[in-house]
Known about the structure:
This protein is mostly beta strands. It has a domain at about 380-600: Single-stranded right-handed beta-helix, Pectin lyase-like (Pectate Lyase C-like, 3 Solenoid). The protein is about 5% helix and about 45% strand. It has a 36-stranded mixed beta sheet that branches. Helix 2 (about 40-45) links the parallel strand 1 (about 25) and strand 2 (about 50-55). The longest helix has 14 residues, at about 5-15. It is elongated and about 120 Å long.
Amino acid sequence: xxxxPVILFIAFLIWLMPIEGARTYIVDDxxxxxxxxxxDAINSANNxxxxxIKPGTYSEEVILNKSLSIMPLTGEKGPIVLRGDGKTxxxxxxxxxxxxxxxxxxxxxxxxxxxxxNGNVITKNNFETDHPGVLGVDSQKNIxxxxxxxxxxxxxxxxxxxSDNNVLNNxxxxxxxxVFIRDAGKNLVTENKAxxxxxxxxxxxxxxxLVSSNDIQTKTYxxxxxxxxxxxxxxxAIFGPSRGIYLMNSSLLTANNNSVKDxxxxxxxxxxxxxxILQCSLENSTSAIGLAASNGNRIAGNRIANSGxxxxxxxxxxxxxxxxxxxxQCERGFMIIDSPDNLLSNNRFQSVKWSLYVExxxxxxxxxxxxxxxxxDGNPIAYLYSRSGVQIQNKKLxxxxxxxxxxxxxKDNSISNDAVFLFSTRDSRVLGNNVSxxxxxxxxxxxxxxxxxxxxxxxxxxxxxxxxxxSNQIQENNASLNNQNGISLxxxxxxxxxxxxxxxxxxxxxxxxxxxxxxxxxxxxxxxPMGLRIMYSSGNLIYHNNFLGNKxxxxxxxxxxxxxxxxxxGGNYLTGHVAKGNPSxxxxxxxxxxxxxxxxxxxxxxxxxxxxx
Length: 613
């Protein structure tokens, strides 16, 4: 194009400008306008003027110290690039009421745009590899909208008393943090797209942040909140980070109606109080919701699906309310450890292998309110703490926990999903229950109980598992076809284990470890890889048991136990061992590990046929 007509056209435009009121200025890096740089035009302009920028590449650091509008010249095509290439800051805004539109700010070692004033509009700009794209310091009521931001170390950062700013509808790709709010007041972050950064939205030492309707696909954190209060996070869609929403050392937060998918940890609360997680959807997490040292929070109306491990894990937390949550297709439901005074009500579990587990190192940690409105595939959860004389009979339950109970009777019930858990319960009776195809019966720290006549078949671990439990009667149970042992004892003493059936278990029929002075007699132990295995235990008396068809009948390691009760009462019957007499005096059976049954029987149940001596 001939240069003369262009020059005449520009001169004509300048001639038409009014002498008074707002003026317009044109910047062209090729020299076909009055100004070749941003700064020259700004220096000539007055508040309220507009500066039009022609396409081109500009290399400068700009101080915008007047209330001006900077934008592309209408009708011109091509990018307007302000390049850093070693420079620190693209544009520093120190005057309020400015508008910047249609610019590309690239390769600044500091921010592409630094806002140090109020009431500015940053819209429809491009930011590339700046640090960050936009930085607001002690600035209020700015609008940062419709911008495209690529590979900036921080995309938008609001710091140091910045408040009432709107960050909306920006496309943010790559970088470390998409939106960073620190030491700031009320700010709105909404309808942004944050892709492929390390952290999506990071709120630190701030209050009253409103984060809503953002689409976040990041690597490590979707939303990370630290040392903050009175913030709200709603309607955000978070996909793929290790931690979806991570709340830490904060209070009075609300996370409502967010969606978190394909994260390792969905929503985590660490040292968080008086906050709410409401109506969120969490899918394909390893652990969907976690509470650690968090008190007085409400977790309600959430939907948790396809959690690879836990739907909810709570540790060292108290006074929380978990209500009306739907959990489906998860490996485990709610795990509560050392956490007292929590309320669980109206939670629904569908196709969850293990719905509830509560454990504590102290008595108080079991003091939770968990009622039968919590359902697993339509069957209620029963949870009893510090009850005496209670009777549970002829019920179909998904789960039963009794903690610090005494003189209770649990009889003729069916447990369909989890287990019968007894913690520090004593002088009670668990009789005739069907606890099969789940996790069996577990006793932890229990004394003087009778566990009898129960059907413990096809459980995922042992049919009956006992730890640190003494002086209990374990009798006439059928503990068979379990995926671990039929009956397991660890650190258990002075228990009687008699007249039980332990058949076709995956490991051992009966297993003892660190357990002393127990009596094991009149049991049928058959078709297991190991019939009876004893480890690091002494003082146990084993006699009148039938060992049939086990790959290895018995093993006794690192202990001193008796495999018979003398030459009158005798020892055990073991298929494959040749003995003469009931009991036999001259045909001892060597036990793997160096012990011996000195007086085995030649016939199954031979003790019933023995002649009186």
